[in-house]
Specification:
Number of strands: 7
CATH topology of the largest domain: Rossmann fold
Order of helices and strands: HHHHHEEHEHEHHEEEH
Largest sheet: 5 strands, mixed
Strand content: 5-15%
Number of domains: 2
Radius of gyration: 20 Å
CATH class of the largest domain: Alpha Beta
Helix content: 40-55%
Structural class: alpha/beta
Number of helices: 10
């Protein structure tokens, strides 16, 4: 798989999973560990969407990847978290682990240091510079797509779709469910051209910021926020969407959904239903 020693790769895995972005993200941590260990053991045949759904996300025999997108949704989140890690706490790491798009088999590479360059956590290789430049171009493209949407609705007010746990720490919510639903709702709004939304890769930088909504809304350049909250119930989770003024915290409206066990992690499917319900209530409709 790679010239790197398996134990060195496992050590890098543990560093990643102990970082802030992964420590409280059980689902994507299990995802990364399962796929990497399967690769290290030479059992890459197990790294299939159906197997991951069953082994990592505890789906039963009725699981159908064509209907339940849990693996694809979590793969996107895992890629984003890995990118955040290597842009932040892992920027000086000598081993890079990625999840290439279009598949679930991790890629592992050694990041070399150019001749004459200072070694250590502050050194930057030409490979890293290339990766960061490529990521920057991709980030700008994603931001532009999410900002304007396919219909180019530049005249519509921009909003931020944010998991409530980012603001209301310690309230016992299901932050991973919130993040999955919020990301899927933001994508659905942008894809339909219903609203201009702040791109998710940019929003994710505010995770665990521990700041007031007004401060973040001002920094993001938005006046309205769509907050996604999730709480456990006996069968699964209750999801509540709040539409608020980001500066004054005035609440315009609140809508609730109940997600059972079978749909709790199906963020994409639920996002379409949520957007159907809130479309007429967003700026450009009720508030235009």
């Amino acid at each position: 798989m790679t010239e790197l020693e398996p134990e060195a790769v496992r050590g890098q895995l543990e560093r990643i999973l102990a970082s802030e972005g992964f420590a409280n993200a059980d689902r994507i941590s299990r995802f990364l560990r399962f796929t990497l260990e399967s690769k290290l053991s030479g059992d890459q045949d197990r790294i299939k969407e159906y197997v991951i759904g069953r082994e990592v996300f505890d789906r039963d025999g009725r699981y159908d990847p064509r209907i339940d997108p849990i693996v694809r949704v979590e793969a996107r989140r895992l890629r984003a978290r890995l990118a955040e890690y290597y842009e932040g706490p892992g920027r000086g790491d000598a081993i890079r682990i990625e999840l290439p798009k279009g598949g679930y088999v991790p890629a592992v590479a050694s990041i070399s240091v150019p001749n004459g360059a200072e070694t250590g956590r502050n050194s930057v290789s030409s490979k890293r510079v290339y990766w960061l430049a490529s990521s920057g171009i991709l980030l700008l493209a994603v931001a532009a797509a999410a900002l304007y949407g396919p219909r180019g609705n530049r005249d519509r007010e921009m909003i931020g779709v944010i998991p409530a746990a980012w603001f209301w720490q310690g309230r016992g919510g299901l932050s991973e469910v919130e993040e999955g639903v919020a990301e899927a709702v933001a994508a659905e709004l942008a894809n339909r051209g219903i609203a201009r939304v702040v791109a998710w890769p940019l929003l994710s930088g505010y995770r665990n910021a521990g700041r007031q909504t007004s401060s973040l809304a001002t920094e993001m350049g938005v006046s309205k926020l769509l907050l996604v909250s999730a709480r456990e119930n006996g069968a699964g989770a209750n999801v509540t969407v709040f539409f608020v003024d980001g500066i004054t915290n005035q609440k315009y409206w609140t809508l609730d959904w109940s997600l059972g066990d079978s749909s709790r992690a199906r963020e994409q499917s639920e996002a379409a239903r949520i957007v159907d319900a809130i479309e007429s209530r967003l700026p450009g409709a009720a508030y235009k």
